[in-house]
Amino acid sequence: MSATTETLSQLATTIPGATGVFRKYKLDFCCGGAVSLAEAAAAKGLDADAIAGELKALAPVPAEAPTETVPLIAHILTRYHEVHRRELPELIRLAKRVEAVHGERPDAPKGLADILVPFARELDDHMRKEEMVLFPMMEDGGNDFIRHPIGVMRTEHIEAGATLKQLEAFAGEPPADACPTWRALNAGLAKFCDDLMNHIHLENNVLFPAFETAEHHEGCGCGH
């Protein structure tokens, strides 16, 4: 089925990040989300196929991660660092919106935005340290000092793993009467949690050990 024939609500709740695209084009995926992308685009004089192309580009093409250092780092940067930075601001916006509208309900995701906002800053800082310090050292073949920044990254992965457990508690199936915004939030959060788990796994268990002795290799900080 083409994305243009699916409703805005369906697309918003199945494609993490779609809500950001819809907001850019001022397409109402929540209260007015029962119409197809083609219908909604036509009503505003927009190109539905072009919007569908943007939606398709949101989903990274599944690919087996390489094991060689330089290609693996490139994979981590494009598949995880770039994607986290794109998706977290929209998750924060959705979390704030759902809590503002549905906060009186006992099953509302109260406090989710309060977790995501500082975590987004911490994760961005963590990724920048990898990009500016650790990854260039690895691409140059490593040195005697490299175990120190690896150790720092492993510690921060453990801390991220603790936050991941908090986020997963919000990422389950939404209530049966949840609005499309709420459903989009849960779908996006579940995808982010899965991505973060895989991201940590690739670094802890594939990338880092190539620069450590066996006794320095530790398990995945996410605790799964």
3D architecture notes:
Keywords: Cytoplasm, Iron, Metal-binding. This is Iron-sulfur cluster repair protein YtfE. It holds the Pfam family Hemerythrin. It is found in: Cytoplasm. It comes from Rhizomicrobium electricum. This protein has 224 residues and is an all-alpha fold. It is built from 8 helices and no strands. Helix 1 runs parallel beside helix 8, helix 5 packs antiparallel against helix 6 and helix 5 packs antiparallel against helix 8. It starts with 7 loop residues before the first helix and ends in a 17-residue tail after the last helix. The C terminus is likely disordered.
User: How confident is the prediction overall: mean pLDDT?
Assistant: 89
- Summarize the amount of helix as a percent range: 55-70%
What's the SSE pattern? HHHHHHHH
Report how far the terminal alpha carbons are from each other: 35 Å
- The assigned structural class equals mainly alpha
Supply the number of helical segments: 8
Rounded to the nearest angstrom, the radius of gyration is 20 Å
Low-confidence stretches: 214-224
The biggest beta sheet is recorded as: none
Task: Characterize the overall form.
Answer: globular
How many strand segments?
0
Strand content: under 5%
